[in-house]
Amino acid sequence: MSDAVKVAIIGSGPAGLSAASRAGQLGLSHVLLEKTDHLSDTIFKYQKGKRVLATPDRLDLRSDCRFAEGAREYILGNWDEDAASNKVNVVKEAEVTEVTGQQGAFEIKTSKGVFKAENIVLAIGTQGNPNRMRCPGNDLPHIIYTVDDPEDFKDKHITVVGSGDAGIENALGVAEEALENTVTILNRSKDFARAKAKNVSDMMEAGENGFMSIRTETQPKMVEPGWLTLETPTGDEKIQCDVIVARLGSVAPRGFVESMGIEFTGPDREAFPKLSPTFESTVPGIFVIGALAGYPLIKHCMNQGYDVVEFINGNTALTPADEKDLAAIFAGLPQQKPVSEWLEYLRTRIRIFADVSPLQMREFMLDSKVAFYRKGDVVFEKGEPGSSLFAIADGHAEVEVGPDLTVPIEQGSIFGEVGLISGRKRGATIRAGEDSIFVEVSRTAALKLMAAVPGAKRVINRISLERQLLQIFKGGLTVDDLAEVVDTAEVERVPAGKTVLTEGEQGDDVYVIRSGSMVVEKDIGGKPIFLRYLPAGSFFGEMGVLSGEPRNATVKAAVGAELIKLTGESFRKMLAARPQVREATEAAVAERAQMNSFIESRKASYSSAVDLYSDTASFIMKEGLGEATDALLIDENLCVGCDNCEKACADSHEGLSRLDREAGKTFAHLHVPTSCRHCEHPHCMADCPPNVIHRGPDGEVFMEPGCIGCGNCMRNCPYGVIRMEAAPPQKPSLLRWLLTGFGPGPGEPSPKWTKKQLGEEKPKKIAVKCDMCKGIAGGPACVRACPTGAAIRVSPEEFLSIARLQEDAD
């Protein structure tokens, strides 16, 4: 081709095809270069029969190509027809090898010759550059990175690594195609932050029906022929595995893109090209759209393809399809600015957004809130539950750390990160220090941000660590004092039961518990004796720094946890620079040493009591109460089996009890009935489509009206405390029952009575769980109704204190 076209589009995926179709409709000279012999190679490589979703629903489609939810084959057929009707000038099997020149005179070398163009639209995607597994055995031939046809898999043990949309869809495909397949899907975290809600819902349903096993907080540790060793929250596990489908995401072909002169937002593999609001890169005349621009949803890509050609054609008045939704988000702010200015304002003034591309920023803000606060306005109170993250765009925030004492948080920084990471209640009251603009980021959106933008994750982790250390060690520490400590810190994931420190070993690293909890044990008389429980926000290991002696206790993970490891050398330098911090740390060490001596002295004279206390604590940790914030316990020495607790619960909740007194496990005389624990990070919240599960002001996890009966919460709860039930008909009053005998009496009505009242009617089932009697005066009815005081609700810390007192009494 000798004459230069107005625009050359490289890549015929949804973004590139939409761009070429717009050029064709506008009559612009163009060429669409595709390296394969077919259009839209990414969609073409989707598994056979895959259902393609047209999300997000709120976003209007702006393209000359059709797109609605449907099977892969249907969509590709439509696009082939649309390319022809829009007079797209496509050259297939034209792989691009080099781009040179400048705006107005680019030369594109391909396997089909050289093409000249005034402008280039780069829409090549990232699927050709997938992330690889990194554990031992990652080069074995039974590891594959795509699933072309689920019919190829019959009677296999298949493990899917990665729980984004691609991984979930592959798992569903191979599970549904051949029911004799054994399918397992692995997710490193508890949350499915990268996947669409519908895909997660379909996966959970498949898991409930036995079509696949869903393993969260689990990752591959070693691959062997026919076997896969997993690292799980409860330790290593070996499973049979014939095929591994690794769907770990992909990254931009950075070398090729940078060879054109295009700059990226940062050095990380996951970074994206720097782009203007009109998709123009740092090389004038080269535009980047689609997955390579940072957001791969098909509808977004197609809109970008349409928009970029309009921009190239001089349509500067065009606004993106999501403009009206973003305008509504910014409408309540005191200043009047266009959406593009607000986005750039936030992106340049808030540190966690520094590496976010303008396109990512648009999508990210659709899941966030922006609000104006007057000086003195409370953002949240100390002790409130909350897992959202706040960022300061303008003004500053003030943290109330004591009577008449506040600490400022400067513009550009964040707060609320403790609730996001550890699930603990808000640690302090925060107010606006002056008239301010704060961005509130939901937990889901924050997790997506951290997963997609490494720079944002680093900022959040660093600030979180600085704040934790400042809060723990006090003594006049400043952020500058912590610089070396934070620079050398590492984050470690620890499964439940794993030993972090071993008594008698040498070491001086210090650990901060970022999330989860630990238990401390000491060998006394050849038996491990429980010393204490350490919740998120605690630290341990500092004795080795101060004394240089071997570890004097063993520390294990009570539940799956994240730890921040601080090197002994940097910690020692920090203590040397701040004598008052060293003094406070030495005082804490002395207190712990005194407790250890006390336990050892008790061992000699009260051996059985110490053993019982230690064994009881181990039982509680084994039952998962380490992640609880409020658990129901029953002292069976006091319980008379009257079932008043169940009856009172039912009478307080439309006739449906939220607890099962007899179910659950018992150790000695302490019983853990089946009742909600109100976890730090509630598993039931992980996938609630109508978003009706929330935390109340006292930390209770409750369900508001609106449950659709999907059962996701019941399936996600590892403790079996949620069940799906239909509300029974309204019972007569207690007085009427006493006087006339009419009705089922106190407590949950019998199935027989319920069936008689309803007849053939089958009311819809919804999820029911303990809400700690939210809104009912006097607190939990189960505790109030217990005539002997056997029923109590406690946190793990309180439980261990109670266990100690009870064993003292014994």
UniProtKB/TrEMBL annotation:
PANTHER family found in the cross-reference section: CYCLIC NUCLEOTIDE-BINDING DOMAIN CONTAINING PROTEIN (PTHR23011:SF28)
Superkingdom to which the source organism belongs: Bacteria
Cyclic nucleotide-binding domain segment(s): 352-467, 473-592
Entry keyword Iron-sulfur: yes
Native species: Sphingopyxis macrogoltabida
InterPro entries in alphabetical order: 4Fe4S_Fe-S-bd (IPR017896), 4Fe4S_Fe_S_CS (IPR017900), cNMP-bd_dom (IPR000595), cNMP-bd_dom_sf (IPR018490), FAD/NAD-bd_sf (IPR036188), RmlC-like_jellyroll (IPR014710)
Keyword Glycosyltransferase annotated: no
PROSITE patterns: 4FE4S_FER_1, 4FE4S_FER_2, CNMP_BINDING_3
Protein name: Oxidoreductase
